[in-house]
Amino acid sequence: MHLHWFVPSFGDEARLGDLSTAVPPSLAHLTAVAQAAEAAGFEAMLVPAGEACHDGWIVAATLAQHTTTIKFLVAFRPGFVNPPVAARMAASLDRLSGGRLLLNVVTGGHPAELAKDGDVDVDHDARYRRTEEFLDVVLRSWHEQGWDHQGEFFSVRGGGIAQRPKSVPHPKIYLGGASEPAMLAAARYADVYLMWGEPVERMADRAARAKAMAADLGRSIEVGTRFQVVCRETDDEARAAAEDIVSSIDPAYGERLRRHADRTDSVGQSRQNELRAVAEDDWLGPTLWNGFARARLGASVALVGSGASIKATLDRYVDAGIDTFILSGYRHDHEATRVGRHLMPLLGDRQPLPV
């Protein structure tokens, strides 16, 4: 089982919608989050991509100087930087951090946000064709010299880079998406296929299919997922804490958010939208809670409970072939410490954090 944490590079808060608890994404706070996650025993941290976020490459390069072992899963959108340049950027960061880079290829998103970054008039399926070509060029840049490429989106003459990645054979590539083009791109190029968290019965078949698609191409692939988390000493304490985190949300804001979500062409977001309709009082199961959907898009399903209850839930996902979990929680430095105290000691040789 692999557990990763999250860098809140757009800002943080203890209670959503309560500005008195907001924390800006300063170097001091992001460093505190990274060091808390490292102390808790997380393997890596997702550094997100988005219009509200600090640049992921710069965040990861900076935080690598303030940590020693934790890796950084840098999310980036292919197509904004030519793939040979991206290959060089990634190789440099991997070498200078001591092999602590992982790559999360984010193909899509909300069309309006993509357009703000200059990605205009590229439809859903074309974005995945571009992603595949991008990754093909990146991989060749890391491993070959003196090659040419002429494709639908990119052209290269005499390709290859001087400084290769430190990671062998290269930094792991994570790729997510619920659509058929996304799954095919992952089968061809990714080391880890990512899905947003849902009840395990909705994910098991897709996890098996992702592995089968890769096997058909002579490859193997791991499967991971993304959850929020509210971990406390007891289940009752965790449930009370979860409700407190969303207690200050303006219902009108939630309605605006839902309208925004309905305009996406992301299949993964559409699946998250469906969960709002089937949840009973926001609960999808004994430890699966969808209350964060009132305040955020994307990965809104949370694991809520004691360390033992959350471990039992994670074990069900592992049994379904999903063994990488990217978690986040509010505030991110405090919640990382709570996970380190209540959950991590149940997962093997990790020692509990002091109270």
Automatic annotation (TrEMBL):
Keywords: Flavoprotein, FMN, Monooxygenase, Oxidoreductase. InterPro entries: Luciferase-like_dom (IPR011251), Luciferase-like_sf (IPR036661), SsuD_RutA_monooxygenase (IPR050172). One of its GO terms (biological process) is alkanesulfonate catabolic process. Coiled coil: none annotated. It comes from the Bacteria. Pfam families: Bac_luciferase (PF00296). Residues 1-323 form the Luciferase-like domain. Its EC number is 1.14.14.5. One of its GO terms (molecular function) is alkanesulfonate monooxygenase activity. This is Alkanesulfonate monooxygenase.
